[in-house]
Design brief:
Blueprint (H helix, E strand, L loop, with lengths): L2 H11 L7 H12 L1 E4 L2 E7 L3 E9 L14 H9 L3 E3 L2 E3 L7 H4 L4 H6 L13 E7 L5 E6 L5 E4 L5 E5 L2 H24 L6
Antiparallel strand pairs: 1-2, 2-3, 3-4, 4-5, 5-6, 6-7, 7-8, 8-9
Helix pairs in contact: 1-2
Length: about 200
């Protein structure tokens, strides 16, 4: 895909509070390339794996209205821009739709019926919408509370941060997510040491 077509597609999807992502992803595309498969944008390719690995993946917008009753309205708006994403070390969940095997988004339903059980002592009525690699051995979760504010938590239940919105969380977590992704890639590339 040409740079111009990718930028046009990014600008179509990332409007309003998420438009700050366009120059960030454009810069990544400039240095590491990208591909489009169906409605999925894969940006920041690893030369070793080509399109098999991308630093950022934006799936196409959610097609149907789905069962939106349990989804906070602010996150439902995100799903209309992209139905799940990988943004460096952060994964945002989406609704599995008819073509979910091709889209490979992580399931909001599984997150809120199964994966949320891996977190202790969360605030009542929490909605689990994403994770980020926190260390080599731990992920942190992203949640909406019953007041529709966003927070991150460790599996122990420790609340790490709170934000007034999804956009505020993503802006603050963008650089740590990039840094962790780079650290994990560098560590994985190191030869194993015999003990």
């Amino acid at each position: 895909m040409s740079k111009d077509n990718l930028i046009i597609e990014l600008r179509k999807r990332l409007k309003g509070p998420l438009d700050w992502l366009v120059p960030e992803l454009e810069e990544l595309f400039k240095f590491q390339g990208g591909v489009v498969g169906g409605e999925t944008l894969r940006i920041g390719l690893n030369q070793k794996y080509q399109s098999g690995y991308a630093a950022c993946v934006l799936h196409g917008p959610m097609r149907g209205t789905g069962d939106r009753a349990s989804i906070p309205s602010a996150y439902f708006e995100v799903l209309q821009s992209f139905n799940g994403a990988k943004l460096f070390a952060t994964n945002l969940f989406g609704m599995l739709e008819e073509e979910s095997n091709q889209r490979r988004c992580l399931s909001l339903e599984a997150a809120n019926t199964l994966w949320i059980n891996g977190y202790s002592r969360l605030p009542a009525n929490s909605f689990h919408f994403g994770v980020r690699t926190f260390s080599w051995t731990e992920n942190i979760g992203y949640f909406y509370d019953e007041s529709h504010r966003v927070y991150s938590a460790r599996q122990s239940g420790e609340i790490l941060k709170r934000w007034p919105s999804f956009e505020a969380m993503l802006r603050e977590e963008w650089e740590p997510s990039k840094r962790v992704e780079l650290e994990m890639r560098e560590r994985a590339a190191q030869p194993l040491q015999a003990s």
